[in-house]
Amino acid sequence: MNRQLRVPETHSAVPDSVSPAWLVVDYGVIVRNLFQAGKIGVNLSTAVLADLWPEIAEDCLRAGLSVVAANNAEILARCSEDFERLLLKSYRESDLGCVAAGIIPVLHRYSQLLALSNQAQMLDRRCRFYLKADNVADRFFSEEYGFASIVERLPGLPMIDLVGLAIDGPIDERKINNWRRALGSVTENPKIVDVSEPGDLIAWEVLGLTGEISTASFTLGFWGQPFAEKNGEVLFRIEVGRADGLPEIFPVMFADQVGRIVETGLKHSIIAFADHGGQFPAKCPIFSAGGSLSNPLSPHSWQLRDLKIFLMNFSGFPVYLKKNGRIVETGSSCGRGRRYAHAFGYQF
């Protein structure tokens, strides 16, 4: 007689099977993490946080976060002017067109400053910028990158205003103070913002992902298709692989059973679970973080670096927000007409 298994009630709703992977984020936990972080701003460079932004922007203001940063100017253009908006990476001169929308670029080459000055004159408006500083030894001098050389030539560039320094990486406090004094010749009370991890901008802490165990705010799942049985196991296929940022090994659970990774391919992965017999639906929810109420699977079961890399690539999958007992789509996930199964009980 086949053993009857029931998929237990989960932490959150499970979306329909249109997308091979999904993320459900707990709004209450996010807000608590925002207020406990003690930062001055938020970094939206992670795709998941960019999707969540419309839902948490007001909470960031209430938490005293006045800066929003990202690697993509399009993300910043969707943010309110109530925040100081920093474009962290601006490799091309065309990136500087964002200043017309009041976005402040972080620059680190003299040629970028010259291009910004030209852009400001074309717009006939003053434009602000941060100067990026890192821990390069003073003896590696460069007219293009050298801090002292750039600061010396700043007064000759019209229509641009230095806000302060954007520090990227651990730097000696004495060196920072020297930079602050040097900047005093071109601007009053220059701001110092540490944009490195972990610096002045909250990012992974929003999701509860730091070097220490902390309150995680999300459930991560895949849709798995059972397709074969072998050596007392059922094999499932998920349409997510290395090209989506998955590592060789990652935690998975199905029906309160911990599974093992058989293969992580380029665009799909094979997962094995113990075979208890019975019938399976065409697609089954496989959790990689969050799990079930009776057997939760913590995000800290992952290697932290692997999970961060995967979430950095989580731009093609839907992100949902669990708020006041309801599940809503967020950011770029909105408008796709997805439906939810708020309670489900597949019989196996």
Sequence stretches where pLDDT stays below 50 over 5 or more residues: 1-12, 333-348
Classification by helices and strands: alpha/beta
Question: What is the radius of gyration computed over CA atoms, rounded to a whole number of angstroms?
Answer: 24 Å
Strand content: 25-35%
Number of strands: 20
Write down the overall geometry.
Answer: elongated
Count of alpha and pi helical runs: 7
Question: How many strands, what sense, and barrel or not for the largest sheet?
Answer: 8 strands, mixed
The helicity comes to 10-25%
Give me the strand/helix succession: EEHEHEHEEHEHEHEEEEEEEEEHEEE
Report how far the terminal alpha carbons are from each other. Answer: 12 Å
**Overall mean confidence score, pLDDT:** 84
Characterize the structure shown.
There is one protein chain. The protein is an alpha/beta fold. Helix content is 21%, strand content 27%. Strands 2, 11, 12, 15, 16, 17, 18 and 19 form an eight-stranded mixed sheet that branches. Helix 6 links the parallel strand 8 and strand 9. It starts with 13 loop residues before the first strand and ends in a 7-residue tail after the last strand. 39% of the residues are buried.
